[in-house]
Design goal:
Main location: membrane
Shape: globular
CATH class: Mainly Alpha
Subcellular location: Membrane
CATH topology: Amino acid/polyamine transporter I
Mean pLDDT: 85
Organism: Halalkalibacter nanhaiisediminis
Protein name: NSS family neurotransmitter:Na+ symporter
Number of strands: 2
Helix content: over 70%
Strand order of the largest sheet: 1-2
Strand content: under 5%
Pfam families: SNF (PF00209)
Distance between the termini: 52 Å
Length: 450
Amino acid sequence: MSKHEQQWKSKFGFVLAAAGSAIGLGAIWKLPYVAGTSGGGAFFLLFILFTVLLGYPLLVGEFAIGRRAQANAIGTYKKLAPKTLWYLNGVMGVTTSFLVLSFYSVVGGWIILYLFQAFTGSLNGLTQDQFGQLFGATISNPVTALIGQIVFLLCTIIVVARGVQQGIEKASKIMMPALFILFLVLVVRSLSLDGAMEGIKFLLVPNFSEITSESILFALGQAFFALSLGVSVMVTYSSYLPKTQNLPRSASWIVIMNIIISLLAGLAIFPGVFTFGLEVNEGPTLIFSVLPAVFNQLPFGMLFFIAFLILFLFAALTSAFSMLESAVAIMTRNTGEKRKRYAWIIGSLIFVVGIPSCLSYGLMADVQLFDRTFFDLVDYAVSNVLMPLGALVTAIFITNKVSKSVLLEELQQGSKVGIIFFNIWYYLLKYLIPVAIVIVFLDVLFGVFS
């Protein structure tokens, strides 16, 4: 397959694939429980504000340099800034994606294990405490946890090995619409509950008295991380774009879809939590212990929970595709040559690297570095160090190493971007975003502002 053939078949297919990359565990798993512990509506409003003002400009910037270079994550920096060390940001981005997928696949495996238990009827009639015990038993069993991780990675490898058009784009065109439809069904059911209005108020009515510096900073970080920014994934995806693609509009759709999914996740979860008197600040176990307990108390509840697990799996897989593709594109140099071989090799390496994370709740639970299990350590390193650092370097690179004329030309290809829009976008990227990232970066490392 030639380089030209490694392109998106349609504009809509690219938007769905890129949105799938952005809409993952962060939107469906992480954001609802953090909203529950960080002020509900006030946190969600801040998240939307930061996503629009900070996440969107950086997303457009990554699209611009990726399509301009028509190269992989490392090749993009080498083309746009030859004979410099800027390509190391591409190296860091691909490495970060590799590490993210190594523990992301573990959580994907948990979803698959829960789906299996739901289909076999093992989840019927359990209380919240029993679900908590089941979750602990599921993630601590080394055999089943590894099997779940393997199955998740196999699904990811098979799709990526088929290529951009026949694999990632085709799968995204099925999974993303299905995800939206399933979510709408769940939200309609959730909003019919007695306590639905309390859940809606909690999510949508801001109570700024509960906002802390920590929740502001997390909303700021979530705005970047929820869009897969700073890890060169969007640079890789945009390298397959034709010049006719409207980059600002595509980025707008991805941001809008990400916000909508985050909203739907909250609307699917919080009405049930309030109806049955559960705690909104339950934390990371919200999806795996609280939510199934809610569904178990509803007529045909397990069918709805299975639907939720399926859409949860779809969201996880579409994000996983982009992470594996980022590494595969480096080895294949954006062509289809030896794609299948490298997809299997890299996918297998990710599994091996992810084994300690998978066993962090069982056999290796007592193995800790810096008071963290291997799973927590990798999660902390990529979320709080590598990702913000990558986003910062990317913003600096775009506004200091790529000329304004080149950026304007790239943004006007396929769109009618005016100079006013361009200047606002450019100054947000050059000044506001680096300052915001530095604040987040300093706080997560040293607690400067908390």
